[in-house]
Amino acid sequence: AQTFANWQNNTNAPDPNGTDLRPTYVDPANHDMTPTMIDIDGFGIPAGVTTDQKGNARSLTNPDPGAIEFDIPINVSAYNFPS
User: In the prediction, which pLDDT does 30 show?
Assistant: First the structure.
């Protein structure tokens, strides 16, 4: 059986640096495909696109994959985690 690891290790693989992530989204049932998985943040390939589908600025060097940039909510920084 072909697995992602086998495919990636194949010398003829077109994407040896690929990944097998399954991103999650805000609300796919209602067509809100805003990514919620931080693992894909900055994981895209630069394509010269300056804004995402919602009009937000995209990184020209480390964009997110897909049509919408991943964005960490502002209130996340307000949490205090016990040490």
Answer: 94
Give CA–CA dist 24/34, Å, rounded.
8
Contact 36, 25 (CB under 8 A): yes
Please state the pTM of the whole predicted model: 0.61
The ranges assigned to domains in the chain are 22-72
Beta strands in 1-83 (DSSP E): 25-27, 32-35
Give per-residue burial for 52-75: e unless 16+ CB within 10 Å, then b: beeeeebeeeebbbbebbbeeeee
